[in-house]
Amino acid sequence: MSRTRILKSVLALSSAAAVLAAASAHAQDAAAAADPAPQTAAPEQDDGPSNEIVVKGFRASLNNALNMKRNETATIDAIKAEDVAEFPDLNLAESLQRIPGVAISRVNGEGRNISIRGLGPEYSRVRINGMEAIGTTGGTDNSGGVNRGRGFDFNIFSSDLFNSLAVRKTATADVEEGSLGGTVDLQTARPFDYRKPTAVVQAAASYNDLARKAKPRVSTLLTTSTADGRFGVLLSVAYEERALVEEGANITRWTYGGFNGGFAPTSTIAGKTIAQINDTNPATALYHPRIPGLVSYAIDQKRLGAALGVQFRPTEKTLISIDGLYSRLDGTRQESQFQAISFSRSGTGKPQTIIRSGTVDANNNIISGTFDNVDLRSQARYDKLTTDFYQLTGTLDQKIGESLKFGAIVGYSSSQFRNPIQTTVTIDAANTNGFFYDFSTRFPTIRPGVDIANVANFAFTNGTSEVRIRPQTVDNSFTNAKGFLEWTTSPELKLKAGVDWRRFEYSSTEQRRLSGETVVTTLTAAQLAPLTNVFSGFGRGLTIPSGTPTSWVVPNLEAFQAYLNTYSNPTYATGGVENATARGSFVTVREEDLGAWGMAEFNLANAGVPVRGDVGLRYVKTDQFSTGYASQGTAINLVSADRSYENWLPSANLVFDVTDNLMVRFAAAKTIARAGIGSLTPGGNLNVSGGNRTFSSGNPDLKPTKSTNLDASIEWYPTRGAIYAVSAFQKDIGTFVQTLSTTVPYSSLGLPNSLLNGTTASPTDAFIVSQPVNSKGGLLRGFEVNVQQPFSFLPGFLSNFGVLANYTYVSSDIEYLTSANGATTVKAPLLGLSKHAANGTLYYETKKFAIRGSVAYRSKYLTAVPGTEGNSYNGTNSTTNIDAQISYNVTENFKLSLEGINLTDALNDQFVDVSNRLNVLTHSGRQFVLGARLAF
Question: Mind listing the pLDDT tens digit for each residue in 413-439?
C-alpha cells in the first residue's frame, strides 16, 4: 500500500474517532455555554509561535502576533488565526505579504511564491510543524512552468488548515540552515490548544468575474480531549473549487533583425537599409517581437486538505504530539493561443517574411509594421495537473528534573506532482499577407491579414503542424530526525545543544513523441474542418486596440485525438529515456545533511542589565548524489556525480530592553542557501518547440550561495497592539548561483545531429544554451519601516479603527557573468528583488461588525540576467493588489462574511530588456467569496 493511501486511511479513521469523541464530549458539556475560544498552549510544549492560538477577531490576532515578536530574541514576524480554523486570508502567501519585507508572486490570480527582503523563493525555507518541506505545482509557461527547485508553492494548501505562520528573518543555531532570506514556519492546530470540545463548520461560494462561475468552499474543524487532559485529537478538513480565466498578450520575448537568418531581402523600412534591418550585432540591431500572439487559459482547480493532530501527556513532564497533513491540488488548464510564428522561425519562416513598412522607435524597436509571407499558428493545449502532498511528524517534549529538557522531532514529507496529460495540437496558415502589429500601446495591436476565425485559412500539414504529447512528473521528499537538550543553569542562562539529520530526494521524468512532434498525418480541408472550434469572447476587461481579434479557430483536442487515434497509433507513441528531447528530464538527486549545533540563551534582566539574546554555532556536512543523461562522444549515457562539503555557521542575536516599551536589536550570522535541486544534475536537456530552440544543462559542482548577514532594529511598543519599528539589514553575498545563457549554433554543442530527427530544427540553427554557474555575488542592503496602531485612544466609534502599514527598501549589486569563459560581467539587482515594497491595511472592528481593506505594492523585479538574444534582462513590472473583507456576527457563534480579492484586476506585466519591451500582459479577474461560519 502506498504512503498516500496509508495516510488517507489514517485520516479517515481519525475523522471517525474525532466525530465520536466530539459528540461524546459535547453531550457531557451540554449544560455549558458553547465557547470555541482557544487557550494558549500547555507549558510543557516548546516555547514559540507554533503553540499560541489567538482569541477571536482581527485585532486580537494582531495583538498575539505582536506579543510573540516582542518576546523573541531573534527577529520574527507572525500572522495569527482570527478564530478557530479562520485565517485572515484565503491564501497563505497573501497573508505573508502583510509581513514587512515579504513580497509574493501570483499565478492564476493567487499567491504562489514569496520573496523575503529581496531574496526569492530559492533562498527561503519552509517548515511545517517544525519539519522542512517542499511543495511543487505546475504553472503556465509564462509563469515559470513546473517548480523544479527548492522554492515552496503555497497555493497547494487551504489557509483554513493553519493557525499561525511566522517568518524568521535572523538566524539562530537551533534552526536548520538553508535560507538567506528567512525561514517560514507553518503550524497546524493541536487538540491541547483548546479548553473544551470544539466544532466549526464553514461554507462559502467563490466567484470569478472573468470566468463567470461560482464554486464551493467548505471546511470543518473538530477537536476534543479527555477529561483529565491527557489525550486529545483534532481533525480539520478543507475543500474548495476554483474556476478562473487568465488571458492577454503573449509575445515570447523580442529578438533582433539578423537573428534566425534575417528578413527577406526585399524588406523595407523608411530610412533603413536592408543591412540595418538584418544587422546581426545585438548592440546596434533593430529589434522585433519574436512571436506576437494572444492567449487565453481556462483553469479549473479542486483543493482538498486535511490536518490531523493527536496529543498524549502520559505524565506532567512528557508530551507526545503527532501531526498529519495531507493536501491534494487537482486541476485542468485549457489553452487557446494565436501566434504569428514566422518571426521566430529560420528557414521557411523569417527569411521569407517581407517587411512592407515599419516604424522604428528611439530604442531601435520595430514598434509597428506591416508584413507579408507571415506564418500564422493557432494552438490548443490541455493539461491535467495534480499535486499530492503529505507529511507525518512526531514530536516529543520531555522534562528531566527541574532544569533539563529533551526534545525530538521525526517525520517524513512527500510532494508528488503529476502532469499525466499535456497535449498540444497546432494548425497553421503559411505565407499570409497583410499582417500588422503595433506596440506603441502597452496592449499591442495584433491584426492578421486573413480571417483567423475561418478554418479554411488553416491547414494541418506533416512537417509543419505539431502534435505535442509531454506528460511529466516531479517528486520531492524529506526524511527528518532531530533532537536537542536544553539545560537551564540559572534564571539568566540556558545552554542548548542538538543534532539533526535530513535526507532530501528529488526525481523528475518526462515523455515525448518518439517520431518527432512535427510528424503528423496531413489532413485535407474537409477532414480538418470538423476537428476545430471557434474560440470567442477574448479580451473582456482589457483595453484591446481596434483590429485585434477576439475570436479565432482552434483545434478541438478531443476530436483530434479520436480522429488520429493518438493513444494507439504508433506515429504518436511516446518514450522517455529513449527519446532525445525527453531524456534530459530524467534527473535524480539525493542530498543528506548532518548538522550539530550549540548555543547559549541569556537574559540578564535579573542581574540589573536589560540585555538578552543568544549566541551559537552550527556545523553541517552535506552529501549530494545526482544523475542525468549526458553526451559522451557520440553516445548519450546515464552519468552520475557525487560530492560533499562542510560549513561552519555562527550566529548571534542581541536585544537591549531600553525601557519597558522600547528595545534595540542587533544580529549577525553566516548563512547558506543550496543551489536549486533540479540544477544539480550532470545531464542536459534538448528542447525544440515551435520556434523555440534550447539546450539546458545542470551543474553538480555548484557551490551553495553564502552570505554574511548584519541586522539592526529599533522597536517601540507604545500601547497594547501597537508597534513603531525601523530595521536595517545587510547581506554580503560572497558566492551566487546564476543561469548563464548564450546563443550558439547547434553544431557547436558537440551533440549528435541525430538528436534533431523528427524536429524542424537543423544543425545550423541558433540554440539558446543555459547552465547554472557560480558568480562573484555582491552586497544587498535595505531597511524596513513597520507601523501597527489600533486607534483605541480615539473617542466613540473611531476607537474601533486601526491601521497596519509597512515599507521595505532593498538594493543590491550582483555581478553576473555574460560569457561562458567569465571574461565579461554585468552588475544588476538580484533576481526576484523588488527595490520597493509596501503594504497597508485599514480596519474597523466591533464585536458584531468588521471591515478591512488592504493594498500591497511591489516594484518591478528581474527574472533573468542576462537576457537572451541581445536583451539585457527579463523581468516583471510593478504590481498593486487591493483586497477587502467585511463580516457580521449574527450571533456569538454564527458569522457571515464577504471577501473581495484583486479588486482592481491587476495585470501580470512581464518585460524584456532595459527598454521595457512587452513580453506578457495578462489578467485573471476579480475574486469574490461569500461565506458563513458556525462554531459550537
Answer: 999 999 999 999 999 999 999 999 999
